Amino acid sequence: MGTVGLSFGSPTSGAGFNVSSTVAAIIGNLQNVETPWKTQLTALQGQDTAILNLGTLLSSLSNDMSSLTDFQGIMAQKTGSSSDTNVLQLTSASSSAVAGTHSVVVTSLAQTSSGYLAPIANAAATLSGSISFQVGSGTVHTITLNSTDNTLAGLAAAINNSGAGVNASVLSDSLGSRLSLVSGTSGANGNLTITSNSIVGNPNKALSYTGTAGTDTTASSGTLTSVTNAADTLSIQLGSGTAQTVVIGAAPSTPAANTIYTGAGVNTLAGIVTAINTAGIGVTASVATNSDGSSSLSLVSGTLGTAGTLTAVSTISDTGTALSYSSTVAGKDAQLTVDGVNLTSASNTVSNLIPGLTFQLLAPSPTQTGGSQEQVQVVIANDNAGVESTINQFVTDYNSLISAVNAQQGLDSSGNAEPLFGSPTLSLLQRQLLGGLNTQNPNGNLDSISTNTGTTLSGSLTIQVGSGATKTVVLGAAPSSPAANTIYTGAGVDSLSGIASAINAANIGVTASVVTSGTQSTLSFLSGTAGPAGVLAVNSSIVATSGTLLGYSGAAGSTMQVSSGSLASIPNFNDALSGSVSIQVGTGAAQTVTLNSSDNSLPGLANAINTANIGVTASVVTNQDGSSSLALISQTPGSAGSLTVTSSILDTANTTSKTLQYSNSSDVSTLANLGITVSQQDNGSLSFNVATLDSALNADFGGVVGFFQNANGWGQGFNTLLTNSGSTSSTGILKLAQNSDSNIEATLNANVSKEESIISIQQKSLTAELNSANQIMQSLPSQLLGVNELYAAITGYNQNTNG
Q1: Taking burial as the number of CB atoms within 10 A of a residue's CB, which of 139, 503, 668, 673 is the most buried?
Q2: What is the dihedral of CA 446, 450, 455, 461, to 10 degrees?
Q3: Using CA of residue 788, residue 790, residue 795, residue 799, what is the dihedral sign?
Q4: Which residues partner with 473 through β-bridges?
Q5: pLDDT tens digits, 278-316
Q6: What pTM does this model have?
């Protein structure tokens, strides 16, 4: 740290010194302590930016891999074509569609049932009655008109809102308006049937009365407007007599006075005539036929003169006739042949007659020379172009990432080291990426086995590479006369690793390895020959025999009870056991009890635990079903005595067995088989040969899919690697680097904040002290003058001798 001096000039001049600049110089000196912290913070912020950029690039690469490993992704997409798009047009293909060519002959298209009611002149005319209809063999639906839907539009709305599966609409042209009905179900099962129809087109026209008064020589007479049917009432009064009402319909139990009823169901002019004439009211009624063919009700008074003048008031109206229904199209299924099989479809949109494929029928296949119908060729193909585009994007994004990683290992344009220069994060990320790229894809694997159940293996398996000789792998020692093409694992070898060692030592063009994940291990096979020529055919009859693992279940201790629990029950308490059990009481040290030949049963294990004196009491308990369990009880009450038990005890007398089957992963073993190679001269970037990939897709599309998507395939492994390297995983390389930087930045920011607080306090103190000192220096001349005067007064020194 540098020093700060004060320039007083002449101390007795009274000029003092500059407090502000002096304090600033001292504070600046103190702030030098923060400089390395702030420098480090700037460097860390640069690292954060670089890590964030790498994370973004890694995320893009991970998205590319997700497209390739997704079972519904680009690998599942299909392309298709039709040889005659006038007959059949492809709509879509799902992931279940299989590449291939199909022949389709369309004999006839599907039809949807439809029809219409007879037209009426006025679309707004009032209707009455009801209509019942049925779709196929479904429920009969009845729509009865009321005051809110008694027009064509209202009837259409009522049908559409009924949920009956019929679409109704009003069609109008020069002939009038009509109700159109179309079945909501195409094909024969959607045939529309009108089971009853009493819809009547009612012009709502009252039958008005027109007549003449009686004279001395003529009788009063008149007619109602011409009609076809009639409804409601007619009131007839002769002169000043009592009015008689004619009602259309049956008489009630108590008929009204002066009322004539035509009778039940009688609603015609002829019926009205009969009722009037029978009533004897002095009026003769008759039906008159008009020149246009319509009919009128004629009334003639039986009394001459004005006394016989007829007064008729009519509310009778014309009810019209039922609107007949005409069926225009009958429902019909489409008829077609797919690959020689006669099929039907209720709709012209056909789904899954060819698995996973949806296509539209547009017309019947045309008839060719000779009378046969044209066969439309439907071709379903894998989306090679889409896969190639996605893999090309993967290569591009990988190269962007590895380029960014490599750039961080050098200098920027100003010659300064990049933020992550020398960081272990870079080298670790680079090693993981290159290691993942160079990982060979296993061609297949056996079913996994547990690593903690003491599993032993027996039996044999056969391996064939391509069309080569079949090799047999036998667990056990070779006999005195070994069989041809047979590999023996050796006496007592009953493990996956033993099988792997025997296969690898035999040099049969296959590499075997044991892959362990968690508590499961599997034997993985990798062909030494790429492509279809190196496809592995493995048949396994390896039998895995495992003991029963006796897991522990129990309760923690509480104020009400001590901690206790038990191992899983076994059929016989004398079963031979193996393994060990770890027991921890509260927060104490875990104690391990391992079985040996003298205590390899439940009683022996209980005795071993009790003898170990670890604060736990063990006993053998007989259960209600006759099985036995090992009970453990803590000797310490409360939570301090809670038991934590980890058991690897196996019941070797109570075993389970299963045959380890082989699952093929892929015939593609490396990225190079797909045209993707790592350039050693260009710092690990990738090059891509699309022709090689196209060849692989055409020769073995399923193998390419398996390479990316099978459980033990390269794609799934690399995808997991990318996820675990980025910032989304809590243990990812970039996430750990971010966390480390964040922790350091938090400490540095805290140091800077604390130092700033201290400096602020010192600045205030220094300013006050130096201001005080400055005031003293500025007052020195006057103080010196006073001293001088006092000295002169006392001594007479410097006084004028003449005065």
Answers
A1: 668
A2: 0
A3: positive
A4: 461, 487
A5: 988 888 888 887 765 567 788 887 887 777 777 777 766
A6: 0.58
